[in-house]
Specification:
Elements: E1 8-12, H1 17-28, E2 32-37, E3 43-47, E4 50-56, H2 62-76, E5 81-84, H3 99-122, E6 129-133, H4 146-166, E7 172-178, H5 184-187, H6 191-199, H7 209-220, E8 231-234
Parallel strand pairs: 1-2, 1-5, 2-4, 5-6, 6-7, 7-8
Antiparallel strand pairs: 3-4
């Protein structure tokens, strides 16, 4: 039986990478999925038992987000599952960081996540689930990624608070926290960087987006019906051992 059969799911940042893998997995598991991206082509594709609908939305634009969720409410009336994956990670050490770098990072990784969650949960019934894509970077000090790490720590803090606030409505909020994952960002790294990262992972390899999607599916489905407020690392043990 499909784990999200009949569910209405929204994936913010669901075009490619981890977000794309989550959107496709949700659709295969029976959900109708509204997946947003700044790069997506407007249209509709079919994946397995569910329907995946791509929408071009700049998640950092509050008006664009409001218009998107208004359209989802008009068409589907509700959101059962929200996953927020949109984010950026740019290198800048403390001596080089500037306001533009900070604003870009927090604008997408924190501001957009906050207001997407606010909009989705406003039309989410009891039994709903929110899955926020954090990062193990929120709990470790990676040189050159201070703003990124701080933004992901904010995601973890939001999840704790929202899990507490939304529990009386029967809505669960959790975080999936990937380690190094084979996305475009990692693919663009040098062989030396990839080798260094791999050596830091007890399981001896970079993760796959599909593995993060499996964890997100667990947190989105009734398989985790008594789980809220957690951060689930998917990092091959990198930040755990």
């Amino acid at each position: 039986m499909s784990k999200l059969a009949g569910k209405i799911a929204v994936v913010i940042g669901g075009h490619d990478g981890i977000g794309g893998a989550i959107a496709q997995r949700f659709a295969v598991e029976g959900a109708t999925v509204y997946a947003t991206s700044r790069r997506a082509d407007e249209g509709e594709t079919i994946h397995g038992a569910g329907r995946l609908r791509a929408h071009r939305v700049d998640a950092s634009d509050p008006q664009a987000l409001d218009a998107f969720f208004a359209a989802v409410q008009h068409e589907a009336e509700r959101v059962d599952v929200l996953a927020v994956s949109a984010g950026i990670a740019e290198f800048a050490t403390l001596d080089a960081v500037d306001e533009d770098h900070f604003d870009r990072t927090f604008g997408l990784n924190v501001h957009a996540l906050l207001f997407a969650t606010k909009a989705a949960t406003a039309i989410m019934p009891a039994g709903g689930a929110v899955v926020l894509v954090g990062s193990i970077a929120g709990g470790i000090g990676t040189k050159g990624y201070g703003a990124y790490g701080a933004s992901k720590a904010a995601v973890r803090a939001f999840a704790r608070t929202w899990a507490n606030e939304l529990a009386p409505r029967g809505i669960r909020v959790n975080v999936v926290a990937p380690g190094p994952t084979d996305t475009a960002m990692i693919a663009a790294a040098s062989d030396e960087v990839r080798s260094t990262l791999t050596q830091m992972i007890p399981l001896g390899r970079i993760g796959r987006p599909e593995e993060v999607a499996s964890a997100a599916l667990f947190l989105a489905s009734d398989e985790s019906s008594f789980v809220t407020g957690i951060e689930l690392p998917v990092d091959g043990g990198m930040a755990q051992i």
